Amino acid sequence: MSILVVGSVAYDDITSPSGSVKNILGGAATYFALAASYFTEVRVVAVVGEDFGADQEDVFRQHGIDICGIERAKGKTFRWGGSYADNLNEAKTDYTDLNVFETFHPQIPREYEDTKFLFLANIQPTLQANVRRTMNGVRLTGCDTMNYWIKGTPKELAETLKVVDVLLINDAEAKMLAHESNLPRAAHKVLGMGPQALVIKHGEYGATIFFREGAFGIGRHPFRAPALPIEEVKDPTGAGDSFAGGFMGYLASQNELNREVLKRALFYGGVMGSFAVERFGTERLQSLTRDEIEARFQTFRELTHLE
Amino acid sequence: MSILVVGSVAYDDITSPSGSVKNILGGAATYFALAASYFTEVRVVAVVGEDFGADQEDVFRQHGIDICGIERAKGKTFRWGGSYADNLNEAKTDYTDLNVFETFHPQIPREYEDTKFLFLANIQPTLQANVRRTMNGVRLTGCDTMNYWIKGTPKELAETLKVVDVLLINDAEAKMLAHESNLPRAAHKVLGMGPQALVIKHGEYGATIFFREGAFGIGRHPFRAPALPIEEVKDPTGAGDSFAGGFMGYLASQNELNREVLKRALFYGGVMGSFAVERFGTERLQSLTRDEIEARFQTFRELTHLE
């Protein structure tokens, strides 16, 4: 089934120990859409400026991604510049020019209203909740957020969490959201705020999915998927969005949503994140084959499974 | 087959967010020996002072641990005081009184000379190498070390690494030892220094074992075992030594040492580490049953394995 992502499309300038790139296609919705496109049909709601080129549109179209929901507004496309130091763990933001993204009010095209899977990438929480409310037929909603909204708009975020099924955030965000330094305790507090499942991303250590009692099956046991030990991380930008794209894209490709399917989705999330960081920007995500994805899924399995 | 551990036996004062304890039995060799005792016969070489009580000796004896290698010296037993803040990630050392441990020169009793499995807990590297050299019949040697020796005695440590089979250290230690911030690259550098396999412990995220090409089987693929998401960590002291005890103890209980056995050993390491932190000091390690250990092994499997 098709999946709709609502979020940013951007131009990025990125510097890492492996080099520098300028004016490359970026944004959470872009990484998500490309990663998910290997699993299912993808639709995008975003905004770009008058400077957004046909070449960039072609990147989406070549992956069968429906971009009729990408609004073209007066002004410039969102631009972000970031640098990574040696440990690659955190981006230093060099600049953020929101441009047309500053007044982004997601409009869902009529032809998207039948979408069954929805991913709310990291935007202002009330906008996320509004999108969710206009989509009546949605079967599963995934959601991302960040420390900026957790700190700045906690009430709005709390309302959004009531209407999402799966929240995908990292360790620091989960702890901040729950006001709790122990990770599993933080997870259970966050599940109490609304979501049926919570994916906590641990960067190079993988990710854990925590379930609400009874959600998607029996029990409250978490499940952990690895990340690949990668010798050369060129550019960590978009790893989390690519993870979400693999996770949600795989879910949307399945008939049934049970625990086993969500566990496999967590593996596919790790797989797509691991590809994303191998090259700058979306380069690696643009050139994948389904065979390469399955081979890496197998590598992830061998990395963690006993005989 | 039996396993010999050479390391510290101590009295600890520990404060964590869960409370405080004073004068409890501690030391790397103690945690290691108790954890390993559920898998195989354990022998200990250590030194204690005149203050070391019969009650403490009984803790070892009740687990069938051979302590004829624990030397009783004039003076006081090694004492350590440590505190953990809210995140429990790192101990703040309140004091270290080396006492009789300061002049510890491990003597291997004649009746231990046939030992096939050896674990060199964290002591001065030259002492570790000397012990290894006196034990001619050893089949597999495991070794721990710490930042203090990596920084302070790098040449001595390099000599020790040439005569050990498996090194068990944490992320920060591996990166410091290899002068390399990328973990898999650091791992391969460390394997180049001597060991056949390297276990890197990631704390709450589990552990990864890296193999030298051809060591214990075919290929160079690493393997990752999880840690249990624990809601109440009472006291992290000894988690790493308990991990090593589970890992090495399981290896010593097996006839063949191949990759699959080392992978299972990594799981048992995580299992014993997860028990250790549930109560203060060695309390939980003293009261386990093999059934509880197998049940938790199963939990670790369910935490990571797809159907």
Shape of chain A: globular
The CA-CA distance between the termini of chain A, in Å, is 34 Å
Proportion of residues in β-strands of chain A: 15-25%
Q: Indicate the structural class of chain A.
A: alpha/beta
List the helices and strands and how they pair.
Two copies of one chain form a homodimer.
Chain A: E1 3-6, E2 10-16, E3 19-26, H1 28-36, E4 42-48, H2 54-62, E5 66-72, E6 79-84, E7 91-97, E8 117-120, H3 125-134, E9 140-144, H4 147-152, H5 154-161, E10 166-170, H6 171-178, H7 183-191, E11 197-201, E12 207-211, E13 223-225, H8 239-252, H9 259-276, H10 283-286, H11 290-304
Parallel strand pairs in A: 1-4, 1-8, 2-6, 4-5, 8-9, 9-10, 10-11
Antiparallel strand pairs in A: 2-3, 6-7, 11-12, 12-13
Helix pairs in contact in A: 1-8, 3-5, 6-7, 8-9, 9-11
Can you put this structure into words, describing what you see?
- 2 copies of one chain form a homodimer.
- By secondary structure, chain A is α/β, with parallel strands linked by helices.
- Chain A contains 11 helices and 13 strands.
- In chain A, α3 links the parallel β8 (117-120) and β9 (140-144).
- The model of chain A has no long low-confidence stretch (mean pLDDT 96).
- Chains A and B meet through α7, β13, α9 and α11 of A and α7, β13, α9 and α11 of B.
